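Audit log entry. Action: structure prediction of a protein-small molecule complex. Ligand: S-adenosylmethionine. The ligand was supplied as SMILES and no pocket hint was given, so placement is left entirely to the predictor. Protonation state taken as written. Sequence taken verbatim from the request; no trimming, no tag removal. Recorded inputs:
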Amino acid sequence: MSTATGLTATGVPVVDGIPFARAGREELQDRVARLLADGEVDRARIALFADADDWWTQPAPPPEQLARVPAARSLREAMALLGMGRVGDYFAHRWSDPTHLATLALLGQHWPGDRPVVDVACGIGTQLRELSRRGVPELVGVDVVWSKLWLAQRFVCPGARYVCADLTAAPDLQVPRPAYVTCHDAFYFLRDKPAAAAAMHALAGPGGTVVVGHAHVADTVSAGEPLSPQEYAGLLGASVLYDDAELTAALLAARPPVPAPADRLTSSEAIALVAGDLRAPAPVDLGEPLGPLRANPLYVGGELRWPSDRYAAEYGPRSGHLPARWPELLPADAARRRLLVDLPEEW
Ligand SMILES: C[S@@+](CC[C@H](N)C(=O)[O-])C[C@H]1O[C@@H](n2cnc3c(N)ncnc32)[C@H](O)[C@@H]1O
């Protein structure tokens, strides 16, 4: 984990080892650079904590509250201090949601091996943590929101390198090629999808791999601008596509996922796509989470309790793997079904 603070050779401010190169935030970049020049590292960090997604409508918490984030003893405490609301619920319970299980099936079937990995729109690094713990050596996480990368580095995957940037306007990430470039539960958000697809391929380089997980086809709950499977496949040059529900089902059944042609996926809610070098399946089963395992914290007093109505509406109908009540006798596949989960140590 890097703690470097200062300016890069190109003048990009770096706090706690994470450069802030987000396009369209030049005023904030200048402010942070000035604070660093004055030795005001804590105020620079607070200024970066206050920056959010363009679509986020909540005001930033007061600076006195943001100043307490570095002392937070858990991921959830830090997310609460950052005022992350429903996004905090999403990240806190990402380890058992059906979309994450689909992502694991996808990564497991098209495993990066020893290729360098760039996780675009990596959020708090949930997938990077999995890759890191399974031995993938070189990991870079990119996201537009600096505080999410800070959480990733502090609580979820300290072994990765992080850069705060927009995928379509990122500085040179200095990743050797061919690389394995992934993006999960985010590609459909991106406004300029042709530019995003081109940026991912440029990062991957000749002979590289581009893997997009959970791209909404029909958008029911989340924000975003979905495309049809054919449009996604055309943009990404994908040769293998999956229905997201098939990926989740395959992980739960401990079998390889079955791909489908684009024209069979038009009524899917979400799909996944792979372009370039398809790689080989992982030598390990990502359906079996690594220990130490803990009881899924969605169970309170023996009952499955969703963190919010919004979360229940989005994930409840797709979470048949989580029974309504904690079973008296744990089934043999309790870990596969994420009754037991491998939460970060300071969850
Ligand atoms: C729903 S979250 C998914 C996070 C993570 N990939 C996961 O699966 O847990 C979407 C992420 O996309 C990021 N994001 C949105 N637009 C972006 C852009 N243009 N470049 C990089 N990241 C972006 C957001 O900050 C957010 O962390």
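Audit: result stored. The longest helix spans residues 26-37. The chain has three domains: 6-84, 94-276, 294-341.
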